[in-house]
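Board notes (copied after class):
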Amino acid sequence: MGITILLVDDHKIVFDSLQSLLDEQPDIRVVGWAENGRDAVTKVKELKPAVVIMDVAMPDLNGIEATQQITRHYPGTKIIALSMHAEKQFVTGILSAGASGYLTKNCSSDELVNAIRSVAANKKYLSPDIAGVVIEESLNHPPDTGTSSSSILTMREREVLQLIVEGNTVKQIAERLYLSIKTIHTHRNQIMQKLNMNSTAELTKFAIREGLIPLHD
């Protein structure tokens, strides 16, 4: 059967190129594609892949939040982040959420294949440039300062925060999350109160700093 793979990226062209590459490997089989984090959680439940190749910055539900949900509910599935972003907030965010590896999208095909085989064998894999980010962060900062989004906000509040700063209305967020408009208003108020912020602009700056959304795509 080999190592089954779910590819998660909001760009179809990335999926097509990765599928083409991985299909050449005799011990690796791509079983599906998800275009955002929310879709990824659903596909993991359906397909039960051995490894998920996860983009970090995606609309609707980012890779960090999706990784946290997947590792919590489906601990047998390993996750490798594959991203154009190498900033520490993205790297530390998704590794803290439970990812087993992190590669940048300029990595070689051989490195990606090696990473897949490593994490499938219950090992960790970081590309050299990402390993440098992790080492620098661990040397210069304590493990938990108590000011990250994961320590301040609940999982649901982080989902709502991302949807807010992406420009969704309260009604759209309620429909997306299958919650009432009143509940979304409550979450929004709690987020602003916890973060001591009063505007969407302030929330957006916080979300960028925390790696919930990218500064640019």
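Comment from the instructor: The first strand starts at residue 3 and ends at 8. The domain at 3-140 is CATH 3.40.50.2300 (Rossmann fold).
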